[in-house]
Design goal:
This protein is an alpha/beta fold and about 375 residues long. About 30% of the residues lie in helices and about 15% in strands. It has helices at about 40, 60-75, 80-100, 115-120, 140-145, 160-165, 190-200, 245, 285-300, 305-325, 340-350, 370-380, and strands at about 105-110, 130-135, 155, 170-175, 200-205, 220-225, 240, 330-335, 355, 360-365. It comes from Cryobacterium psychrotolerans.
Length: about 375
Amino acid sequence: MDPAPSPTVPPPGTAMPSATIPPSAGIAASGPRARLGVREARGRFSGGRGYLAACTLGLPTRETLAAMRADAEEWSLGRADAARYGAVVERVRSGYAGLVSVPVGAVAIGSQASVMAGLVAASVPDGAEVLCVDGDFSSMVFPFLSQRHRGVTVRHVPLGELAGSITANTWLVAWSLVQSATGAIANTEAIVAAAHRSGTFTLCDTTQAAGWMPVDASRFDATICHSYKWLCAPRGAAFLTVSARLAEELNPAQAGWYAGESPWASCYGPEMNLATDARRFDVSPAWPAWVGAEPAIELFRSLDLAEVRAHAVGLGDALCDGLGIDRLGQAIVSWPDADGQGLGRLTAAGLVASGRAGRARVAFHLWNDEDDVADALTALGR
């Protein structure tokens, strides 16, 4: 066995390397990206027929699987390199910034959506009001409810009433762009306009949106996205984008070595020199997840997300037609299923779907086609 090399750790005061470290297999370091169509992108996945659960867990591409297997092999041989991992993280950060149309300096990285929401929640002023959606995913609700001991008030309203419920007393409005339980899409234009008029900060969770529809994170003061669903990355690669206006209000309460201006010079106290951009909100990354996230993010950067949206919504609307319900214009379709019979029929037919809040839920993504719609309708007796 070849001797394992020592980790290539930069000297104190230097930033993590990026351009000098080769990217993961199959990923171009720079230059123009060839546009992929939905049909070609579907070929990147090993499976997916009958898998109607991107809203629960995305599927990995062949490139993600290859990158993670290669990384595991290097780790097993004692060749894993901390600096190489750092370079991967920076490439993914940059790729995600491009995907959602923000500067790379506005992107912080982490591992969980709730932890990022918790960072924002901990910075809400004592006694301030936060406005949330009634029935939104708990990661966008619980962090704010946990601040009640400081007098923070959390008000819940239906999604359709969110914009009209923002007042001059609302410090933050927090919502999911696409609702987890129903797939309903928020009226972003109305919410952002109302928040602008009242001076309210905006926090939008794009976890159920980014990957199947275009997302412009620059429209919000902050966004959160855990990329393991529609972006098809491993669980553990999450992003926080933050505007300069909100960044001034946030306390980097979770700061560790990775939040330092030079992480490799920030491994020990007592002095703390945090990054001046959004990296000061970073938490130390779960390295193997980011190895798998790199080809995933690059795939979605190469797609026309308007085309992906048309594909996913087309399948969703076709299912609605077959179910005899109004077209929703959504990638996620759900319907009342309190007794679980609908979900049971889908499962019995070998389809992978999900149930949330007393509703059966299916989702359509790159790997799905009209055959999946037909199979679902047959399973449901339609």
